[in-house]
UniProtKB/TrEMBL annotation:
The keyword Plastid does not apply. GO terms for cellular component: cytoplasm. Zinc chaperone that directly transfers zinc cofactor to target proteins, thereby activating them. Zinc is transferred from the CXCC motif in the GTPase domain to the zinc binding site in target proteins in a process requiring GTP hydrolysis. Residues 240-263 are annotated as: Disordered. It comes from the Bacteria. It comes from Azoarcus taiwanensis. Belongs to the SIMIBI class G3E GTPase family. ZNG1 subfamily. This is GTP-binding protein. GO terms for molecular function: hydrolase activity; nucleotide binding. It catalyses: GTP + H2O = GDP + phosphate + H(+). Residues 270-368 form the CobW C-terminal domain. CDD domains: CobW-like.
Amino acid sequence: MTELPGFMNENVEDRRVPVRVLTGFLGAGKTTLLNRLLSNPAFSRTAVLINEFGEVAVDHHLVDKIDDSIVVLDSGCICCSVQGDLLRALKDVFQRGVRREIDPVERVLIETTGLADPAPIIHTLMQDMFVSARFHCDGVITAVDVTHAPGQLDAHREPVRQIAMADRLLLTKCDLTDPPTRASVVERLRVLNPGAPLVEVFGGEVGAEAFEACGIYDPGTKLPDVALWLGEEAARAKAERAPATSGPGAWRRPGAAPVARQPTRHDSDVQSFVLAFDQPLDWLEFSEGLSLLLAAYGHRVLRIKGLLNVSGDPLPRIVQCVQHAVYPPTTLPAWPESGPYADRRSRLVFIVRELPREEVAAILGSLFGQVPVSS
Ligand SMILES: Nc1nc2c(ncn2[C@@H]2O[C@H](COP(=O)(O)OP(=O)(O)OP(=O)(O)O)[C@@H](O)[C@H]2O)c(=O)[nH]1
């Protein structure tokens, strides 16, 4: 019997390092969960790969444990363009372990962008010979924001796939809803994924059991669509490897139709941009301005996050919004010493739908008395 890469014969002990994929739509609470998990000593030997949708990465600053075992995959979205980076990062984790530059890793956790499709990630883990011999996909864990899930499922295909492909569903922000609302969300999730265990998360608190091994990824336990998506992924990867059939210098068999290459998998009306402010911001003015912006445009704002330099405060303040919801601000213990934020300017990353950067910049500029610039 031939074994597919990524699948092992049940009788052979599998010594490969498990890789768990933590996914969930924008702002669902992935980084919050990751932080809780990494503060648990049982998870100290975990390598973490963080991927973000946006020009300036913020999440790794929000993870308390920052060391060599945290890698930021920042050259694009993991499901569109950073699959090479993902393989390189896993190879690097393995080789650094062999050279004893890092402690042996017991598991790898990948935090995807909120817009990621898990199918290409799972496919990438299974198809590379080097990686699939040393790592195996041991579960997709999907965070579902119970306060926003119904609207997100109506408007976007990414959360549908993230939920359908999950081995475990973590229902986040349960502290912000009542039991009947949660029950109606669960009813909807069960249509997409009848079998995945559900874990309710209150105030971002989660036990280690939520991240325990799920077992080798098995599309057969999910809706038939999941096997179909993985099959499409294999076909897409094959087409990508084929010689280019369009563009300058491309070869194409006479009469053959060009192969469509998809530069990105996300809706083209979902965009990300960064607004930076040179001068420190007055907190009260900022909070009022943000509320006005969200009151008018919250339905087109999928996510805002960033670090602010607030007048009179030496420490960076973290701003977090998901659609109309503004979460309580928190403070980092120090400004980052490297990366874009080392200059201590305020930067906000926006992920929006059909909302031009210029429009947001003009509104905030008029409210704050300083014109924001691109990062
Ligand atoms: N009340 C409450 N707030 C939560 C919970 N989980 C997350 N949050 C808040 O939701 C906001 C977004 O959480 P993150 O952990 O940054 O979400 P994320 O999924 O990593 O976001 P992206 O990477 O941008 O997709 C933060 O302000 C969190 O504090 C929860 O269970 N309860």
